[in-house]
Design brief:
single chain; alpha+beta; Alpha-Beta Plaits; two-stranded antiparallel sheet; 19% helix; 14% strand; globular; binds iron/sulfur cluster
């Protein structure tokens, strides 16, 4: 079975909406594997890195209030 991975829809992602006080992406907080990261800091959209380490667990997707993350 192919590996599942999180994909971010950057058209929907808006850190200033879901985390107006500190800019920390809720999906970053939810990813206990440390794969969802804001490499450019708060208020910047996250990325899945390194992508091959993503577990496809969906915790990030469930935590994102903008439905900006899908698991494929
Ligand atoms: S991925 Fe979701 S929770 Fe994270 S900054 Fe974007 S919209 Fe907010
Ligand atoms: S699917 Fe799981 S491991 Fe992958 S980025 Fe989301 S929370 Fe992290």
């Amino acid at each position: 079975m192919p590996k599942r991975i999180a994909i971010i829809d950057y058209a929907k992602c808006a850190p200033e909406k879901c985390a107006p006080s500190d800019g920390i992406c809720l999906a970053v907080r939810a990813c206990t594997h440390g794969i969802m990261q804001q490499v450019d800091g708060p208020y910047d959209p996250p990325m899945v890195f390194p992508p091959n380490m993503c577990q496809g667990c969906g915790d990030c997707s469930q935590a994102c209030p903008q439905n900006a993350i899908i698991i494929v």
